[in-house]
Amino acid sequence: MDTPVDPLKIADRELGSRLVLGTGGAPSLDLLERAVVASGTELVTVALRRIDPQAPGSVLEVLDRLGVAVLPNTAGCYTATEAVRTARLAREAFETDWVKLEVIGDDRTLLPDPVELVHAAEQLVDDGFTVLAYTTDDPILARRLEDLGCAAVMPLGSPIGSGMGINNPYNIALIVAQAAVPVVLDAGVGTASDAALAMELGCDAVLLASAVTRAQDPVAMAHAMRHAVAAGHLARIAGRIPRRHYADASTSDEGRPDLLGPDPL
Amino acid sequence: MDTPVDPLKIADRELGSRLVLGTGGAPSLDLLERAVVASGTELVTVALRRIDPQAPGSVLEVLDRLGVAVLPNTAGCYTATEAVRTARLAREAFETDWVKLEVIGDDRTLLPDPVELVHAAEQLVDDGFTVLAYTTDDPILARRLEDLGCAAVMPLGSPIGSGMGINNPYNIALIVAQAAVPVVLDAGVGTASDAALAMELGCDAVLLASAVTRAQDPVAMAHAMRHAVAAGHLARIAGRIPRRHYADASTSDEGRPDLLGPDPL
Amino acid sequence: MDTPVDPLKIADRELGSRLVLGTGGAPSLDLLERAVVASGTELVTVALRRIDPQAPGSVLEVLDRLGVAVLPNTAGCYTATEAVRTARLAREAFETDWVKLEVIGDDRTLLPDPVELVHAAEQLVDDGFTVLAYTTDDPILARRLEDLGCAAVMPLGSPIGSGMGINNPYNIALIVAQAAVPVVLDAGVGTASDAALAMELGCDAVLLASAVTRAQDPVAMAHAMRHAVAAGHLARIAGRIPRRHYADASTSDEGRPDLLGPDPL
Amino acid sequence: MDTPVDPLKIADRELGSRLVLGTGGAPSLDLLERAVVASGTELVTVALRRIDPQAPGSVLEVLDRLGVAVLPNTAGCYTATEAVRTARLAREAFETDWVKLEVIGDDRTLLPDPVELVHAAEQLVDDGFTVLAYTTDDPILARRLEDLGCAAVMPLGSPIGSGMGINNPYNIALIVAQAAVPVVLDAGVGTASDAALAMELGCDAVLLASAVTRAQDPVAMAHAMRHAVAAGHLARIAGRIPRRHYADASTSDEGRPDLLGPDPL
Amino acid sequence: MTAVTVNGQPEDVGAGTTVADLVARHRPSSRGVAVARNEEVVPRSQWDTTPAAEGDRFEILTAAQGG
Amino acid sequence: MTAVTVNGQPEDVGAGTTVADLVARHRPSSRGVAVARNEEVVPRSQWDTTPAAEGDRFEILTAAQGG
Amino acid sequence: MTAVTVNGQPEDVGAGTTVADLVARHRPSSRGVAVARNEEVVPRSQWDTTPAAEGDRFEILTAAQGG
Amino acid sequence: MTAVTVNGQPEDVGAGTTVADLVARHRPSSRGVAVARNEEVVPRSQWDTTPAAEGDRFEILTAAQGG
After folding, report:
1. Cβ of C251 under 8 Å from any chain G Cβ?
2. Lowest mean pLDDT among G9-18, G24-33, H51-60
3. How far is C247 from chain G (nearest CA, A)?
4. E60/C50 Cβ within 8 A
5. Region of poorest pLDDT, from A96-105, D109-118, D246-255
6. Do A258 and F8 lie within an 8 Å CB cutoff?
């Protein structure tokens, strides 16, 4: 049932999978490894944190072994200054100029701060980074990020880890309609149908972490998400039927037999 | 990416696919054949109509060739009498005692008539049929159909061919919670995420026709639906994360570096 | 701000208010009395129960004093037999042939049993009752109840006391579109916007109990519901603007000044 | 049925109505006048445009006659520069330092541009204006606008004139939860239940134009909106019942008679 | 004495007791009251003439709060 | 000749014509075919022995695409 | 004569024409009117003392319906 | 000895200690490691030649799970 899917192209890299997996929240490196494999992803996010002498094994070794690309994030940064510094350190650590730019404005909602985000994106683009910007579902902000050189815009469906799905599909569709760079739905996915919906709205990929890593069975959910992204992408390509207000018989009345007989007199 | 899915059991038959495909609306037998293959289905509905000397080929030949089982429907019947007669003729024609029982109350919405439906189901169960009952999303009616011996209850998501998806997920979840026989979401599916949602709600299978046969590219949509049903089923099994009102960081703050330095005096 | 609203006519009775209030769940007769007044209702439901020597005061005295009409219900009946007997006793007790017919199929959801409901309605109509039938949101069932002589059909928005609002607005709109008798949204209303929506969908009235009687401040909520029903009814009459996919400026660009001046060379 | 509602306070002005009416789109000054009266509003928006010698009468005369306050907007401005200049001209024209600040980023969606909006708000606050900022439903942006001194934040429900209602109630609730200044739902309201919902989410007021001015009967819809805002506000205050997954009987089973008699042997 | 059941409770009543007597015994006013005898309604007009017989099941009902 | 109705159309058939004959006349193969005579199914096993009688209404049915 | 632009249209005004004169020429009442000269607001208090100079761009604005 | 801060903890290092030395002290392999000195990145190519000075704040960072 493997489907040859048209590859996703971000900047100059082609990816065979339209699912980007975050590693946060996985209960163990072993489960993470199996989830990455089950998901089929080729691009996986990591954070940059102080070295921990106690840490048993390393997420980087797992990703190296699996041969998937690393996408460093700037999670936890509240200002453009911090985010830019974090991105530069990540470039040094992981030898990649790709970065998932995340500048948040609030520790309860982890929602992006649009003003700091724009400042950070400008600096990182100037500095030669390939910026994948985690953003709100604001179409004007998304366009601004694209205009200043981001390689992908990554609007949220709902807050990180909330599992609420896509709170405003209309805005996601607006972003898709106007974007010339890839649109990656990032944050909020709770279950498979959310990921499928994102792709049906025209997103080019889905980025998710908690939905898989915190599921009761992360490996089964990774598998589910692989199918869901393929399902939504194929459905978008296939061209769905319109919504109708009334029914439209799938069985024709043509040739329907008369099984009631003549009316009794 | 093929997943070994636990088989679906209806009455005493095991099915390797949880997608049941209706054949109505396909633009040609060739496209239908390719869509059936792409969908992976093992059970396909047909209607019973007057023989048509002009008909080029036959849907039955296609299904025979593909080795999928035939599920006759009673589409177009408004009364229990018609439906029972149609089921008996179908049993004779297709040598199966399985029937998708459909008794409608209205030609604009094609919604089931609960009273006639119950009467027809009683007679067909008595007559030895394996009855898969197309019904509304009314949990009390679904239980009554199960209690009188139906082998599966098939609540609608929304009217046939409408593509509105599942109008009342709450009722579908209630039906699933109480049913001891398989629940098949039947009618209303418009696109992949609808099918995934049905499975996430706990349905055992999805039956759809127009969503595939009337899509712009039926074969691609059949493929999408195969993925969607697998995605939703796996997600249900995997155990999704709860919906939260606030964010839940997928990246921990633990070990976050200080990149702002000391406050200037 | 009082609005002269076209009166509601059920059977041969005209009602100046389109809100029907249930009395169940009120914390005290005093609060109930004030809520009835605040709601502006002219029709109030009561149940029939064994006399209770300990009962402090009587709901009937309150309603008599306020001069509102009594609508007995058959709450708690699971069979047509019980419901018919209850209705006959209520007619004797309250000297009214009006009855809110309620035949439930399940004690967790309190959803109507369509088959028993139809049987009971037939008998009560034959017996000269003015039957207001509490029913599911099934349009075919609603039409059947109308056809057999019910004076009003009262589809539920969601289960009694659940406060979920209207789970399937599409079905309510279908019922309204086909009905020649008044349609009263009964059950499920949680807050004011639910009641307004019911009226916007074209319902002729709203019946609610818990939303008012179990609110933290029943009197304020009764007031809110009075406004909400008027709001929804007026909005339906006023003819709302269509939903558009894009914006439609409310401020015209015509005459917009040039405040940027000539482009600098 | 007039309800003494706690007044709305914006900056140092108390308003007896929680409905702010926009004047754009009214088919005639006469209908506008009657709609303003029916709505009960005390604050009405106007735009600033080149004088039109052909104009029959003036919106300002109407508002003067009705004694309602004027809230000038900066509709049509794409940059902070234009918006600030427009606000200064409006202050001169209408002798008010109140302004509805609107800086848009796109002529199809008329969505606010967050970056230009912040710049304009900073300048106008510095310049002594009482700024009511029309903004997206982004909670971080709303907080920033409040922090820099806006007197009210006015998040959109959906694009201006779209009538889609509130696309993301979750974000509106977040904005309300954190705001210390009044929150006015501005843009997108299509019908009465939308306005009621806005108030139930905790908004302090609703601003709408097209929903009334472009309704088939603007005066009736103005009346509907007056009720809707009161309904939603009262419901918020009254404290709605929680949503439950199952039913909660409004009629108690206590004292239910036995009307089936003893089981026959 | 005649043994009957009233609202699910056993009760002994004097010979010749009518429905009207029974109601009066339980309720000062008969406004809003209905009576079932062996699951069938006894119209108010027949209360005076309907005697309680051995083993009769009576339900004496009135309004309660209800949705 | 015997006048019958087949799928809503009048048709004259020779005396002694059976259901099996009728089906063969309309359809090369009988796979997937069912027959109703006066609204009641005629089991395949009785096709050879069921004659067409004057005024009979026959429905000869087979599979069509359906949802 | 002095050549200026008023609301996007060229207009010749006499020497010494003030903003107050300009407004009066286009509008009987000055209630609800604001004037921009070269994109900057001219306060009402300065209308009498602000002359129109060659090439000035004036915007004379008032209330219109708006959302 | 030179007093510096490493990942928020005070640490005394010998004179002439370089960033490379510091990293080696805390981590067997330098794969996936980045270093900030006083909030600015120290490129890997300069680790050998960048000495730790009194009061320097170092952050030695590597990959952690993150969304």
Report:
1. yes
2. G24-33
3. 12
4. yes
5. D246-255
6. yes
Taking the Cβ of residue C239 and every Cβ of chain G, the question of whether any pair is shorter than 8 Å is answered with no
Shortest Cα distance, chain C CAs vs residue E3, angstroms: 19
Report the pLDDT averaged over residues D188-203: 97
Give the whole-angstrom CA distance, residue C19 versus residue C45.
11
pLDDT band at D91 (very low <50, low <70, confident <90, very high): very high
Percent of residues, chain B, with pLDDT higher than 90: 83
Q: What is the pLDDT of residues A44-58, one digit of tens each?
A: 999 999 988 777 678
CA angle, F50 as apex, F45 and F52 as ends, to 5°?
Answer: 145
Do the Cβ atoms of C38 and C222 come closer than 8 Å?
yes
Do the chains contact at C250 and G39, CB–CB below 8 Å?
no
Q: Is D98 on the interface with G (CB under 8 A)?
A: no
Quote the tokens at residue C250. 């409310």
How many residue pairs bridge chain A and chain D with CB atoms within 8 Å of each other?
67
pLDDT digits (tens, 9 = 90+) for A112-135: 999 999 999 999 999 999 999 999
Residue C186 bridge partners (DSSP): C207
**Nearest CA of chain F to the CA of A262: how many Å?**
9
Encoding tokens for residue C215? 């609110």
Catalytic residue among B18, B100, B226, B233: B100
Of G35, G63, G66, the CB nearest to D22: G66
Cβ-proximal residues to H10 (8 Å cutoff; 6+ apart), any chain: H3, H4
Residue-level length of chain E: 67
Chains touching E, CB cut-off 8 Å, 3+ pairs: C, D
Q: Is G26 within 8 Å of G60 (Cβ atoms)? A: yes
Treating both helix axes as pointing N-terminal to C-terminal, what angle do C114-126 and B139-147 enclose, rounded to 10 degrees? 100
The mean pLDDT value of chain D amounts to 93
> Using CB atoms, which residue from C250, C251, C257 is nearest to G36?
C257
Average pLDDT, chain B: 93
CB contact under 8 A, H67 and A48: no
pLDDT at D1 (0 to 100): 47
Rounded-to-integer distance, Cα C156 and Cα C111, Å: 9
Q: Which of D203, D121, D138, D195 is nearest to D165 (CA)?
A: D195
pLDDT at C264 over 80: no
Whole-angstrom Cα Rg for chain D: 22
Quickly count: other Cβ atoms within 10 Å of residue H27's Cβ. Answer: 15
Instruction: Kindly tell me whether chain G and chain H come into contact, counting contact as 3+ Cβ pairs under 8 Å.
Output: no
Question: B189 to chain A nearest CA, in Å?
Answer: 10
Nearest to A20 by CA among A142, A152, A179, A217: A152
- Interface residue B1 vs chain H (CB under 8 A): no
The answer to whether the Cβ–Cβ distance between B258 and H38 falls below 8 Å is no
Give contacts of C25 with chain D, Cβ < 8 Å: 250
How far is CA B88 from each of CA A118, F39, F61, rounded to the nearest angstrom? 69, 11, 12
What confidence tens digit (pLDDT) does each residue in H10-46 have? 989 888 899 999 998 888 788 899 999 999 999 999 9
Average pLDDT over residues C251-260: 84
- Distance of CA B251 to CAs A26, A72, B81, Å? 10, 11, 63
Out of C115, C137, C143, closest to residue B118 by CB: C115
Q: Which of B164, D260, E52 is nearest to C79 (CA)?
A: D260
